[in-house]
Every structure is written in C-alpha cells, then in structure tokens.
Specification:
By secondary structure, the chain is an alpha+beta fold. It has 5 helices and 6 strands.
Length: 167
C-alpha cells in the first residue's frame, strides 16, 4: 500500500499537507458520516505511515517528538476514550478554560493560546482510533516566552479533561 496514494498527496508532501488530506478524506470515509469502516481503517493506517515517512525526511527524532528552535511536537501524545466529535468538543471546552481558541476545524484540529503562566501556542490534531481518539500535541511559546515541554502541556490538558463531566 502506498500511503501517499491513499491520501491523494505527492510522495514529497509535508506533514501539514498530509494532515489536511487526511481530514478531508476522513470526513467522507468515517463510518459516522456514512463511510466504510474498512476504508477508514486503511485511511488511518496510511495517515500514520505517511506522517512517519514525512517526519523522517525532516530530520532525526526521538520518541516521536519534533524539536525545533521554538516548537515541540509529541505524536500520539494521549488518547481520549471517545469518538473525535466528542473529544473535540471536550478539548474545545478545555481550550476555552485555558485561554483563547485561534483555529477550530471540528473534529480533527484545534489550535489555542494557553494564557496560564506565560503564553503558549498549542495545536491538537485528533485522529480516530478504534472507537477512541488519539491526540497529537504541538506547543510553541508565544513571543519571547521560554520553551515549554509538550509533556507539561499534555499533562495540563489531560488534567482538565479529567475534570470534565463526561455524562
């Protein structure tokens, strides 16, 4: 299987292009929107493989984390035991509690500015995963703020998610 072909992107596509293509196709293929479960599974496998191949092109990484001079990314940072639509709504509530929502593309992307203890940009990419949702987290300090670790932001988000009423 050619993961790039499944997603409909060129083999030299960057991670953002891969994510956009996945979100577009996932909206059509997801069983919740009338798509086929086996095609969604193949799409999810292609997405993970294409992201992995694209991230290898950008340089060496350890543990799925991308380190830049001002950003850090943790692929598959945590999972939420809910479908992406529900997980996205919960993350949207957490984002609103922590700061300001900047970009919202339900149910697969949420970007927000955390205002607690220094301004930090956070991007959450949501991927359906067998009845649950895997969330990848990217963080970057705003302005001249010091770099914040993905683990710190992940722990903050997970703690806030755990405080929500999931009934």
């Amino acid at each position: 299987m050619d993961p790039f072909g499944v997603l409909g992107v060129p083999r030299d596509a960057d991670e953002d292009s891969i994510r956009r293509a996945f979100r577009t196709r996932a909206r059509l293929e997801h069983p919740d929107t009338g798509g086929d479960a086996s095609r969604m599974t193949a799409l999810l496998d292609a997405y993970k493989e294409a992201l992995s191949l694209a991230s290898r092109r950008t340089g060496p990484q350890a543990g799925g984390r991308v380190h830049g001079s001002r950003a850090e990314r943790d692929v598959a940072s945590f999972t939420v035991d809910a479908l992406p639509v529900v997980a996205h709504e919960a993350l949207l509530m957490v984002a609103a509690m922590l700061g300001d929502v900047a970009e919202d593309e339900p149910p697969y992307l949420l970007e927000f500015l955390i205002r607690d203890g220094g301004d930090v940009w956070c991007r959450c990419d949501l991927v359906p995963d067998a009845g649950s949702t895997t969330v990848s987290v990217t963080v970057s300090p705003a302005g001249d703020e010091p770099l914040v670790r993905c683990e710190q932001v992940r722990d903050l988000i997970v703690a806030e998610l755990n405080e929500l009423s999931w009934d």
